[in-house]
Design goal:
single chain; alpha+beta; Rossmann fold; elongated
């Protein structure tokens, strides 16, 4: 049976999908009354009740809140077996006092349930004497930022927000970051910084950058630092701009040194990359801290005017830059607009050629890469400057027709931003030897047609808006459908499971 779910504004409105029995008829099994009492933000609350049958989970009841301080009762007739409740909150901060209780009380459901925090969680119970275990993968550590309440099987996805005190000129500032490393990582493993864009968050980049999966496969550490709010309250990086007093360069250098000492990362193989404003910041680190960040990458970000005018790196820095020619946010050809230090710099190819000169590169070649995905409206040319000191290079991946995207996750699918940058840096970390390209296959987790998403496999789904805010986060069963017609605008839809990550950028239209 395929289940269909429908989203309404500010909440997840679930199409009622009861089993074929008639609730008004005599119950031949166990009759239970489920009472939902909303408190604050009742319209954000929803739940689904499933019977678990050897991986073929059957939806037997569901609920969608509409108002605050309302009590709703449902009578269900349940056969003996294993059951789990999927609790949902469309805002992502738990149920805020809403409760679900069962009458009469049964083992595993003696007291009222509430979702303490997050976008979703589970509650399991059993009817009858049959012993059973329900497999509900997720992060099982309550200390993690992506903890899934009630998960029964840890899937290795836990992420943690740590703090670090940065000291600059006698002033201490507590900063946040997310760090991840695979188990049994070798001593001296590389370390990669991944910086979010303007408006973005460390946890958002953790979810969507693809570096977590890549680090697991390749055996290196990754850190996603958190930028500070600017005067308008927007998270950002101060890439040597003419506004703001944030000491981001010092924070990132000190954090790199701390992680190198704490986890044994190689100081010779520590790199920084970023999306948009994070790309600006990575260029700024190449200018001002090349002794710490031995290579940088940028996706859709360029150099600030001040860095372009004054950059004088004390060491050689290999640079890789991925940029769409149709990027309307950060123009590929540069801009004369000052924009308080954001703009007034030349185009991407001129900037990368300058870095090639700093590395004393003597040769350049341009190659058209295979147009693997002919449906994404873009293709890629690689401009490679090489023959430099220490074998260092500078590269541009020119995405013809590409936009302001993290390629491989959204937009162009011929290249994968995380993979291209990692393969570029690791050749220098490993002594510029010939190395086989990293192959990371995108998972086939869902299909999107119009505004309806169909899950090809059990996975977690995220819908992320253009500011980086997660608008929806929930699991789907194989074959289940999700109606996204309540959303209006551009979104990134991401699916994640043990099989990997699948993402797509789309424009949704509300009905």
């Amino acid at each position: 049976m395929i289940n269909t779910l429908h989203l309404q504004p500010l909440a997840i409105a679930l199409l009622l999908a009861l089993s074929s029995w008639n609730s008004s008829a005599q119950c031949d099994y166990t009759e239970l009354e489920l009472e939902t009492t909303t408190y604050q933000w009742g319209a954000e609350v929803a739940w689904e009740l499933y019977r678990a049958e050897d991986g073929n989970n059957q939806l037997v009841a569901s609920y969608q809140g509409t108002t605050d301080n309302t009590t709703t009762n449902q009578v269900v007739c349940l056969e003996d077996g294993c059951y789990f409740l999927l609790a949902l909150d469309s805002w992502g901060d738990g149920w805020n006092g809403t409760t679900l209780s069962c009458s009469p009380a049964i083992p595993g459901f003696e007291t009222a349930f509430t979702l303490n925090e997050g976008s979703y969680g589970y509650h399991t119970f059993t009817l009858g004497d049959t012993g059973c275990t329900v497999s509900l993968p997720g992060c099982t550590d309550p200390m993690a930022f992506n903890y899934v309440q009630g998960s029964t099987e840890d899937d290795g996805s836990c992420g943690y927000v740590d703090t670090f005190v940065s000291e600059v000129n006698g002033v201490s500032t507590t900063r946040e970051f997310v760090y991840y490393a695979p188990e049994n990582m070798d001593f001296g493993a590389p370390l990669v910084f991944v910086l979010h864009g303007y408006f973005g968050t460390a946890t958002g980049m953790f979810d969507l950058s693809g570096f977590r999966e890549l680090a697991e496969a390749e055996g290196f550490g990754v850190v996603w630092p958190q930028g500070l709010p600017d005067g308008a309250g927007n998270n950002h990086w101060n890439a040597n701009f003419d506004w703001g007093s944030e000491t981001d360069m010092e924070f990132l250098v000190q954090l790199a040194e701390h992680l190198q000492a704490e986890y044994g990362h190689s100081a010779d193989c520590t790199y920084s990359c970023g999306y948009s404003n994070g790309g600006y910041m990575s260029y700024s680190l190449a200018c001002r801290a090349p002794e710490t960040f031995r290579g940088i990458g940028s996706v859709g970000g360029t150099m600030s005017n001040n860095d372009w005018e004054t950059c004088d790196p004390s060491e050689h820095v290999p640079v890789v830059h991925l940029h769409g020619t149709n990027d309307e946010t950060i123009l590929y050809e540069g801009t004369d607009n000052w924009q308080w230090g954001w703009g007034q710099q030349p185009g991407v190819e001129t900037i990368v050629a300058w870095w090639a000169e700093q590395n004393n590169c003597t040769e350049v070649e341009e190659t058209a890469l295979p147009n693997i995905n002919t449906t994404d409206g873009s293709d890629v040319d690689l401009i490679r400057h090489f023959g430099g000191d220490n074998g260092y290079e500078a590269r541009v991946y020119r995405v013809n027709g590409g936009g302001h995207d993290w390629f491989g996750s959204v937009g162009n699918m011929d290249i994968t931003s995380a993979v291209e940058m990692w393969d570029f840096w690791r050749q220098f970390c490993e002594g510029t030897m010939d190395i086989a390209p990293t192959e990371i296959q995108e998972a086939d987790l869902f299909a999107l047609q119009a505004s309806v998403l169909t899950a090809h496999a059990a996975c977690e789904i995220m819908v992320v808006d253009v500011t980086g805010k997660t608008a929806l986060r929930r699991p789907l069963q194989q074959g289940q459908r999700l109606d996204l017609s309540a959303f209006d605008g551009a979104y990134i839809i991401a699916g994640r499971s043990s099989a990997g990550l699948q993402t797509v950028k789309t424009v949704l239209q509300s009905h």
